[in-house]
Write a structure and sequence with these properties.
Oligomer: single chain
Number of helices: 6
Helix content: 55-70%
Structural class: mainly alpha
Shape: elongated
CATH superfamily of the largest domain: Winged helix-like DNA-binding domain superfamily/Winged helix DNA-binding domain
Distance between the termini: 33 Å
Number of strands: 2
């Protein structure tokens, strides 16, 4: 799941930079950069982003061109403005991959890492996804309390 979330974010940044792309353009970019991606992972992401109103598509013959909607532009603007805050928060809770916060127990780091991946993958337009996130938050709280009780 996290791999797809990363790919989706990379895809959105690529489209933002280029303005309009085909799925093939992105696959070519991934190959040049050594990023593992295939048509079987990229095209479903494009479809999902289109379905959720982040991208629009136009057809030119057999080619499909994808570009950001206004909602997509706002979404990316929000992501970029909160990126540093998010990175600092992740670092504080021990999720930074390069420099984990060493005083946090490994099991708590793992629980929080899974939670952050889950948050990133939530479709906020789907009640079921948001309710699942609430259950995950409750589970994290329970696991942290359990860890505290063992000390």
């Amino acid at each position: 799941m996290a791999k797809f979330a990363f790919l989706k974010f990379l895809l959105l940044n690529f489209i933002e930079k280029k303005g309009e792309i085909t799925g093939y353009d992105f696959l070519k970019y991934c190959k040049e950069k050594g990023i593992p991606a295939s048509a079987g992972t990229v095209y479903p992401q494009l479809g999902d982003l289109t379905k959720n109103g982040i991208l629009n598509q136009r057809n030119e013959g057999r080619k499909k061109f994808y570009y950001l909607t206004e909602e997509g532009k706002e979404f990316l603007k929000d992501i970029h403005s909160n990126k540093e805050i998010f990175k600092n928060l992740m670092r504080k809770v021990g999720i930074a991959m390069d420099k984990p916060y060493t005083s946090m127990p490994k099991e708590i780091q793992d629980v929080l890492k899974r939670l952050f991946y889950r948050i990133h993958a939530v479709n906020w337009k789907k009640r079921k996804d948001v309710e699942g996130l609430i259950r995950d938050l409750e589970d994290v709280e329970g696991q942290i309390k359990e860890w505290l009780d063992e000390r």
